[in-house]
């Protein structure tokens, strides 16, 4: 649908890629990326022009970015050094009036479980907030709250994937022991400085040696499997994941993935409602059912794994309130393009600004 000629938005997208020239890598660790040529072709067929830039090429003085659509990649590098740089550029583009997709809050939540939980807490939707969590910036803060915690719970490092840094905690001793490991931030220089200041200053309060942030998340009792739903516009790719015997973690379990022909009751409908609430072109949504309710465990909107798409024999096409199974395997580029176009067209016809949430719930 072509927007009115008076629209202040152009049918043009700036795509920001990383220093490897990547927007999206099909599988972790692979050097190849999706074809930007094919992605641009699919967008052009829908009436959208794509301009590829690197982050250092963004010059906020040389050109105006007001009302320009910007899609961008993210990073999961160790200690998030490069991701921090990406955040700087994307936040500045937001301040310059660009329509960054997804909005900055979604970038902040990427590979950052602390902010992911904070984003959950401020989302005006009870279905997204069925699980409670607490966040901590250091081990000492956990110690201060240890008597207020309810066991068992799941302890998670802020930056982790494939269930690494995710631990089931059953009592106080386990909480302190595992949190000490996950939050360790020891550096020899800090230790030397700490010893010197403790010896020379009265009433000195030392810097914590456990300053890696983490969360405590409510456990869904009896969960031995979960459902990952990758949503790209109106296409829903559902992957069933099983935990190892005696484990509660289905992500990264090494157990075979499955793409059943028929989705469990209410799964795709719940995923759809959550997806629409977050107002993004695509998302990775992890859900667990407790026998009565679907619980949102984790969610991501950037640089999430797409093996579930590449290996899926089918996907579910949303048609109104229903879902129809489609036995085909479109390319990654076409899948991304149709989701991007769908989002952009909805944005142009909605008459709203890019504020992160649909205004209906505010």
Low-pLDDT runs: 1-6, 355-362
- Name the CATH class of the largest domain: Alpha Beta
Task: Report the strand count.
Answer: 14
Oligomeric state of shown chains: single chain
CATH superfamily of the largest domain: ATP-grasp fold, B domain
**End-to-end distance:** 27 Å
Helix-strand pattern, N to C? EHEEHEHHEHEEHHEEEHEEHEEH
Number of helices in the DSSP assignment:
10
Radius of gyration: 22 Å
Using the 3D structure, state the CATH architecture of the largest domain. Answer: 2-Layer Sandwich
The helix content, as a percent range, equals 25-40%
The rough form would be described as: globular
What's the CATH topology name of the largest domain? Answer: D-amino Acid Aminotransferase, Chain A, domain 1
Mean pLDDT: 89
Total number of domains? 3
Largest β sheet strand count, sense and barrel closure? 6 strands, antiparallel
Across the major sheet, the strand order is: 12-11-9-10-13-14
